[in-house]
């Protein structure tokens, strides 16, 4: 009797798979852009494809994207994003927002029980939003465009929401700078697989494993920051910083005291927009046209 065929343990690398792997390998965060334009209608089409090709919890599509191309509007966001020059260089900023407002309006207009005004719904929408942002970034990079995520979106979430006139139950999660690259940076190192891939259960690292798994990061990361500006070594020394780890939680990088203040601002923005379970006035159904 013939034995049943079994699938190979390792899938073959097809041309399609190789194209995706090459795209992942080519990823770089771009911070220098040419001013060349990108058609807004084309960008709409790509965003639509990215949503169609990504996952969505309950297929509710709890996301909205605000495109900012007007130079004066980009100037406003430039100030809210710590005045990073790439915002003024690139033709587009895409602000990806977790949005349960639109779903709540739909529920109200259909006479359904209102929901999606709590922390779980915000969390779900935020995850959907990041999925769309990453799918969009890959699609843009497949066309040769450059992107950079703006972590500053969370630092000034409330003020960005006000600037973009976001209603209650809509808050920005991340922002992509989009344009034609004017630089070709080297690929950034990542932690080795042993540091973050766990079999079956979480494997708490030993001190020796931390030393081994962060050895390259400690050297390469330190060298990278030292090369960013000529006087940086003196600035680090003046602050008593002698290692990459010390730099990361110093006032020069991710200061815990500053992050605590940002966290309070973030909590206040979530509360103001009704996503902490403190339900506000019901959504009024809109009249049908």
Textual characterization of the structure:
The chain has 289 residues and is an alpha+beta fold. Helices cover 46% and strands 11% of the residues. It is globular and about 60 Å long.
Rg value: 22 Å
Helix count equals 14
Strand content: 5-15%
| Element pattern in H and E | HEHEHHEHHEHHEHHHHHH
Which short descriptors sum up this protein?
289 residues, alpha+beta, five-stranded antiparallel β-sheet, 14 helices, 5 strands
List the helices and strands and how they pair.
Blueprint: H1 15-25, E1 33-34, H2 40-52, E2 63-68, H3 71-80, H4 86-89, E3 92-99, H5 101-109, H6 119-142, E4 146-149, H7 152-155, H8 157-163, E5 170-181, H9 193-196, H10 207-213, H11 215-226, H12 232-238, H13 244-248, H14 256-272
Antiparallel strand pairs: 1-5, 2-3, 3-5, 4-5
Helix pairs in contact: 2-6
In short:
This protein is of the alpha+beta class and 289 residues long. It has 14 helices and five strands.
């Amino acid at each position: 009797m013939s034995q049943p065929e079994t699938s190979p343990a390792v899938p073959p690398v097809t041309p399609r798979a190789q194209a995706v792997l090459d795209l992942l390998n080519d990823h770089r965060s771009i911070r220098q852009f040419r001013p060349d334009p990108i058609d807004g209608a084309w960008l709409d089409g790509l965003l639509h494809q990215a949503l169609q090709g990504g996952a969505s919890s309950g297929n509710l599509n709890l996301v909205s994207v605000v495109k900012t191309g007007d130079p004066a509007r980009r100037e406003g966001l430039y100030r809210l994003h710590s005045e990073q020059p790439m915002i003024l260089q690139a033709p587009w900023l895409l602000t990806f927002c977790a949005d349960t407002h639109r779903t709540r309006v739909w529920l109200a207009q259909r006479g359904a029980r209102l929901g999606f005004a709590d922390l779980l719904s915000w969390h779900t929408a935020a995850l959907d939003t990041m999925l769309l942002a990453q799918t969009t970034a890959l699609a843009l990079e497949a066309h040769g465009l450059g992107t950079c995520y703006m972590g500053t979106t969370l630092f000034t979430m409330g003020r960005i929401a006000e600037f973009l006139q976001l209603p209650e139950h809509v808050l920005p999660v991340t922002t992509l700078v989009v344009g034609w690259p004017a630089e070709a940076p080297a690929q950034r190192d990542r932690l080795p697989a042993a540091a973050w891939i766990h079999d079956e259960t979480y494997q708490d690292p030993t001190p020796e494993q931390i030393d081994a798994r962060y050895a390259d990061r400690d050297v390469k990361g330190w060298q990278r920051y030292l090369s960013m500006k000529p006087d940086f070594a003196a600035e680090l020394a003046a602050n008593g910083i002698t290692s990459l780890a010390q730099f990361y939680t110093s006032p020069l990088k991710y200061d815990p005291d500053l992050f605590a203040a940002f966290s309070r601002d973030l909590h206040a923005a979530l509360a103001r927009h009704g996503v902490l379970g403190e339900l506000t006035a019901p959504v009024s159904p809109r009249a049908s046209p």
